[in-house]
Fold:
Amino acid sequence: MGKPMKLIASIDNQWGIGKNGKLLVNIPEDMQFFRQETYGNVVVMGRKTYESLPYSVSLDGRVNIVLSENKAFTLRDAIVCHSVDEVLAKVEEFPDKDVYVIGGESIYTQFLPYCNEAHLTRVDYEYDADVHFPDLDIDNNWEITAESDEKTYFDIIYKFVKYERK
Ligand SMILES: NC(=O)c1ccc[n+]([C@@H]2O[C@H](COP(=O)([O-])OP(=O)(O)OC[C@H]3O[C@@H](n4cnc5c(N)ncnc54)[C@H](OP(=O)(O)O)[C@@H]3O)[C@@H](O)[C@H]2O)c1
Structure:
């Protein structure tokens, strides 16, 4: 197995991450953090998350890998892979870059075994979500290793929490 990957997500109190193909909440500092972490690196996402990006264009300054089962699906600005194994092989071509798994639910779940770090923005609210991140608090393989102070954006309370595989 190659270098371990990293997960990055913003989650609510119930590990919710999205609803109707959209994020639950937009917090500018969270967006900045996401950009800072992933910039210059490789990002791996599902086809639905790719289509949820603003204007459906890939993330600038990053190698974008998009998963789809559809063999006819191609993108001008991203690498399309058709299986987890194909992604694992593809990322080997970028040994100098970190690899961030950026969602959504199906991708987080399938790539969790290949990751050793998770950068989670935990939003202190329970939204009505239809997709979730795997609950790392009930997973004995993971522990919290760093946590920011509580932050606020208008009435939204959130913090940055880092989990690492034990
Ligand atoms: N809060 C956050 O940090 C965060 C981050 C990212 C996304 N989200 C949210 O999550 C939601 C999208 O998540 P989702 O789970 O519905 O969709 P997704 O994971 O983004 O995409 C699912 C699609 O990925 C492809 N796929 C998945 N596994 C595959 C495999 N093993 N091989 C080949 N292709 C595979 C399939 O595409 P085809 O159908 O084309 O075959 C599948 O339909 C949205 O609401 C989005 O806003 C939240």
